[in-house]
Design a protein that fits this description.
- The chain is an all-alpha fold and 214 residues long.
- It has helices at residues 2-47, 50-66, 71-84, 87-103, 107-118, 125-137, 145-156, 163-176, 180-192, 198-211.
Length: 214
């Protein structure tokens, strides 16, 4: 009987942790994307012909404006820009295309888009790594934990800008696989790391509380 109650308790803890991720995770990811898109967009804006920049910028902004009311249409517009835009706007548009597909409810197509961008050696590393991170985080609920762990390991074990979010994803993957000890170890490392952003540290603390001390 005690084993049954313990199993129920563990399931409830995992469910609570999953709800916390669903509550906070998208906001952190969205902030990361906006920062990268803003900085990346500015840098690419400086490096291409003014006339071409203006035309592609107008297409980009038009797609962004349509996102709230017509995410599927925005995804199509971003996809067109990703296919025939210059390398700068193509990478930015591909990220926004995938995000719009998520908004439109087509998660499978979004993941395919993220994966394609992550594997494109012609795409700037910063964008490729972000695409890989987003591909993994959107599959935590449905993907194979072992496969996801392998995919995220390269980001989680570096000093790059996405490392804290990748480590958090590792913890959630471990939790999904039922490995509470590994999840706890990763989250404790995040809370102790001075380079962990404040909001992520707070979320890691909440996740630790949700997991419990067993």
């Amino acid at each position: 009987m005690a084993d049954i109650f313990r199993e129920i308790d563990e399931e409830l803890q995992q469910e609570k942790a999953a709800k916390l991720w669903k509550r906070y995770g998208p906001y952190v990811i969205a902030l990361a994307v906006l920062i990268v898109l803003g900085v990346g967009g500015y840098r690419f804006w400086l490096s291409y012909d003014a006339k071409q920049k203006a035309a592609e910028s107008a297409r980009y902004e038009a797609a962004a404006s349509a996102l709230a009311e017509d995410p599927a249409g925005a995804a199509e517009a971003f996809g067109a820009l990703a296919r025939d835009g210059n390398k700068g706007y193509a990478a930015l548009a591909a990220l926004r295309q995938a995000a719009a597909l998520v908004e439109a409810g087509d998660l499978e197509a979004a993941i395919i888009t993220y994966k394609k961008l992550a594997e494109d050696q012609g795409t700037p590393t910063l964008f490729r790594e972000l695409a890989r991170l987003l591909s993994v985080t959107h599959r935590i609920d449905s993907g194979d934990p072992a496969e996801l762990s392998r995919e995220i390991a390269a980001l989680a074990n570096t000093t790059g800008p996405w490392r804290p979010l990748a480590r958090e994803a590792e913890a959630l993957i471990a939790l999904k696989a039922g490995d509470k000890a590994k999840a706890r170890e990763i989250l404790e490392g995040l809370t102790a790391d001075a380079e962990t952003p404040g909001q992520l540290r707070a979320r890691a603390t909440e996740l630790l509380n949700a997991i419990g001390s067993e």
